[in-house]
C-alpha cells in the first residue's frame, strides 16, 4: 500500500526513528531493565510537564485516563466544560460512570472562559470539573492559565484537564498551574503510534482517589502512584511504546523545548497563511485558535471560501497526504490540517505545495 502521510489531527505521522525504537527487544515489566527505562524517562517527563509529581504511563488511549479521572475524582457532582466533540463526549462518559454531571456548554469554536466556570462553581455543587485545553474537533484552545487560576478560589474542586492535542507542543507547567490532573494520548503531538497515554495527578487528587470506593482497578490512580514509585506500572504496559517514548523524549530535549514550541507556532502559522491566501477563514473565535492544527472554515461561517472538501481531501491524498474532512456536526463545513509532531517548515512546504495544486483543481 502506498504511504499516505498523515496531516490529520491524530494519529499523526510516525518517524522511522520512532518505529525503530518501538522494535527494541522485549523485556519483562517487573525486571531491572524496565525499571531503568521508566526511571530514565521519568525526569524527562517531569521536566516536560513542569512537575515534581511522578508522571504515569497508561496503556490505553486517552479516553481510558479521561474516564479514570472521573471515576477516581468525582464524588459529588462533576462540571463538564463543553465546546466541541471531545469535550461534549466527556459529559456522556461522566453519566455512563454513574456520576451526577452538569454541562457547561459553549458554542463550538468558542473557548471556555474562567468567568463561566466561576459562576458554576460558585453554587458549591461541584467537586470536579473536566476541561479540554485544545479542543481538536474545532481547533480551539481555551485559556488554561486563566481557568487554572480559579483553583485558588475552589481548592476542593478537582480540575481535570485533557491536553491530548497540545501536550509537548505548547508549554504546560503542571505544578505552576496548580491543577489536579493533566493527561494526553501520545498519538497526537508526541507523534507516537496510538496506544499509550501519559498523565500526572496532584497530591490532593491522589488523596481524594484513595477515598473513592468505586474507582476500579485498571485506572486506579493510587495503584499508578504506588507502582510509579518503583518505576513500574500497575499492569503489563505496552513496553514498545515506552521505548518509543524514551526515544522521542531524547529528540525533544536534543531540539530544546522552547525550540519545539516555536517550531509548532511557526508551522501552524504556515497553515494559517495558506488558508488566508486562498480566501479561507478559521473556525475558532479569533484569538483562541489552536497552535497544533487549523480548523478551516468551509461554509460553517459566512465570509469564507467554500470548496468541495471531500474532493479537496481526495486531490491531496492522490499526492500522498491525508488531511481531515471535518469532525462531527461540522464535517464538510470545515476541514482540518495538523502541524503537530515532527513537522518542520520544510515538510510543511511540501504539504502546502500539494494543497496549492489541489486548490487549482477542486
Ligand atoms: C484525540 C483526542 C481524544 C481522544 O483520544 P483517544 O486516544 O482516541 O482516546 C481526546 N481528547 C482530545 C482533545 C483529542 O484530541
Can you describe this structure?
- There is one protein chain.
- By secondary structure, this protein is α/β, with parallel strands linked by helices.
- The chain has two domains: 5-12 and 256-359, Aspartate Aminotransferase, domain 1 (Alpha-Beta Complex), CATH 3.90.1150; 16-253, Type I PLP-dependent aspartate aminotransferase-like (Major domain) (Aspartate Aminotransferase, domain 2).
- It is built from 13 helices and 13 strands.
- The protein has helices at 16-22, 32-49, 62-73, 85-96, 114-121, 144-148, 174-177, 203-209, 221-228, 239-255, 257-277, 309-317, 345-359, and strands at 5-6, 55-58, 78-82, 101-105, 128-132, 134-135, 140-141, 158-162, 181-185, 197-201, 293-297, 321-322, 334-338.
- The strands form four sheets. Strands 2-10-9-8-5-3-4 form a seven-stranded mixed beta sheet, with helices on both faces. Strands 1-12 form a two-stranded parallel ribbon. A two-stranded antiparallel sheet has the order 6-7.
- It starts with a strand and ends with a helix.
- The model has no long low-confidence stretch (mean pLDDT 97).
- Pyridoxal-5'-phosphate binds next to α3.
- Residues 10, 61-63, 86, 132, 136, 162, 164-165, 185, 188 line the site of pyridoxal-5'-phosphate (PLP).
Amino acid at each position: 500500500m502506498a504511504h499516505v502521510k498523515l496531516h490529520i489531527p491524530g494519529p499523526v505521522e510516525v518517524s522511522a526513528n520512532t518505529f525503530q525504537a518501538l522494535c527494541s527487544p522485549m523485556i519483562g515489566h517487573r525486571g531491572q531493565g524496565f525499571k531503568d527505562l521508566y526511571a530514565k524517562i521519568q525526569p524527562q517527563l517531569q521536566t516536560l510537564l513542569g512537575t515534581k509529581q511522578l508522571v504515569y504511563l497508561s496503556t490505553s488511549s486517552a479516553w481510558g485516563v479521561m474516564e479514570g479521572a472521573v471515576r477516581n475524582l468525582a464524588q459529588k457532582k462533576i462540571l463538564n466544560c463543553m465546546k466541541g466533540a471531545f469535550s461534549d463526549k466527556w459529559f456522556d462518559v461522566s453519566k455512563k460512570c454513574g456520576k451526577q454531571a452538569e454541562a457547561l456548554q459553549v458554542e463550538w469554536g468558542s473557548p471556555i472562559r474562567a468567568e463561566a466556570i466561576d459562576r458554576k462553581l460558585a453554587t458549591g455543587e461541584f467537586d470536579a470539573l473536566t476541561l479540554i485545553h485544545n479542543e481538536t474537533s474545532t481547533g480551539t484552545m481555551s485559556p488554561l492559565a486563566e481557568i487554572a487560576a480559579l483553583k485558588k478560589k475552589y481548592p476542593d474542586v478537582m480540575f481535570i484537564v485533557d491536553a491530548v492535542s497540545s501536550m509537548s507542543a505548547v508549554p504546560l507547567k503542571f505544578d505552576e498551574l496548580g491543577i489536579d490532573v493533566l493527561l494526553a494520548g501520545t498519538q497526537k503531538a508526541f507523534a507516537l503510534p496510538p496506544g499509550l497515554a501519559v498523565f500526572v495527578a496532584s497530591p490532593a487528587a491522589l488523596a481524594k482517589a484513595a477515598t473513592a470506593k468505586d474507582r476500579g482497578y485498571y485506572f486506579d490512580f493510587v495503584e499508578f502512584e504506588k507502582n510509579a514509585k518503583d518505576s513500574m506500572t500497575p499492569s503489563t504496559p505496552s513496553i514498545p511504546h515506552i521505548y518509543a517514548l524514551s526515544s522521542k523524549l531524547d529528540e525533544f530535549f536534543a531540539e530544546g523545548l522552547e525550540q519545539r514550541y516555536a517550531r509548532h507556532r511557526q508551522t501552524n502559522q504556515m497553515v494559517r497563511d495558506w488558508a488566508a491566501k486562498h480566501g479561507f477563514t478559521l473556525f475558532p473565535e479569533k484569538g483562541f485558535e489552536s497552535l497544533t492544527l487549523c480548523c478551516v472554515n468551509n461554509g460553517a461561517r459566512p465570509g469564507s471560501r467554500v470548496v468541495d472538501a471531500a474532493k479537496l481531501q481526495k486531490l491531496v491524498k492522490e499526492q500522498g497526504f491525508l488531511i481531515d474532512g471535518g469532525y462531527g456536526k461540522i464535517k464538510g463545513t470545515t476541514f482540518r490540517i495538523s502541524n503537530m509532531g515532527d513537522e518542520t517548515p520544510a515538510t510543511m512546504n511540501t504539504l502546502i505545495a500539494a494543497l496549492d495544486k489541489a486548490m487549482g483543481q477542486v
